[in-house]
Amino acid sequence: MSERGSIEVRNLNKTFARLDSGGTLCAIEDLSLTVEPGEFVSIVGTSGCGKSTLLRVIAGLEMPTRGEVLCGGVPVTGTNPDRGLVFQEHTLFPWLTVRRNIIFALKSSKRLGANRAAVDTLIGKAGLSEFAGSYPHQLSGGMRQRASLIRSLAVSPDVLLLDEPLGALDSFTRMTLQDEIIRLWQERGNTMVLITHDVDEAVYLSQRIVVMSPRPGRVTEVVDVPMSYPRNRGSSDFTELRVKLLTALNFASEVEQEYNL
Ligand SMILES: Nc1ncnc2c1ncn2[C@@H]1O[C@H](COP(=O)(O)OP(=O)(O)OP(=O)(O)O)[C@@H](O)[C@H]1O
Ligand SMILES: [Mg+2]
Prior knowledge:
Blueprint: E1 7-17, E2 24-35, E3 40-44, H1 51-59, E4 66-71, E5 74-75, E6 83-86, H2 98-109, H3 116-125, H4 141-155, E7 159-163, H5 171-188, E8 191-195, H6 199-205, E9 208-212, E10 219-224, H7 236-248, H8 252-259
Parallel strand pairs: 3-8, 3-9, 6-7, 7-8
Antiparallel strand pairs: 1-2, 1-4, 4-5, 9-10
Helix pairs in contact: 2-3, 2-4, 6-7, 7-8
């Protein structure tokens, strides 16, 4: 497999030195995963199971302890503008306004002309029209996160790695941006890997959901989501997949209570 936008994680192990105790911490153990070009895959798992570490290795920000990662058939040895990463925390330049942050990213990626109208449309979708000329420190935490997300969506690299990009947002903004993520993904056809702790979000957005075990992170289950877009959060298929995922995450007793099983 060597197509642009493909990701292949082969027997990945990632160990960190523990400075406190002098030992080591195994964050990821023997994890293998293949993502097809243009596919939308979500990763779910409990806090600390190695999700961000996995994404950082795919991005080239961390090197594997053992195993390898290939993107587009080429071993990952460092970061590359073809792979964008939206971090759990925003990464806006503090000295640029929201609009300038996005235009700067578009210009430096050389992917799109900095079309101000398109940028402003995207800013509007994120509910930031009034703040396009504001600096990051003048925004709330959620607003900064939204600005950071739309900046990456605007650049739209071959592979977009999203680390809980909507985690800090209220449910209405979250739903609007989920639709915007789908719209842009369908328009651009790039590969999406999304980490989320929200099972509904994973089912709403992705074609495949990878469930990771608690540390050390491994793939315990891969759930296909064979539903067309746009998806109906209230449908029986949706609920069925939701229950399946919660069960895979070992929340079986909560599921029984919620659905009176
Ligand atoms: N740079 C680092 N140095 C040492 N340990 C690290 C480092 N990065 C991550 N870890 C450890 O690796 C484990 C996995 O961390 P990671 O951030 O990947 O988890 P996560 O699944 O993203 O969790 P969360 O859902 O809370 O964001 C944790 O135990 C963490 O302490
Ligand atoms: Mg994380």
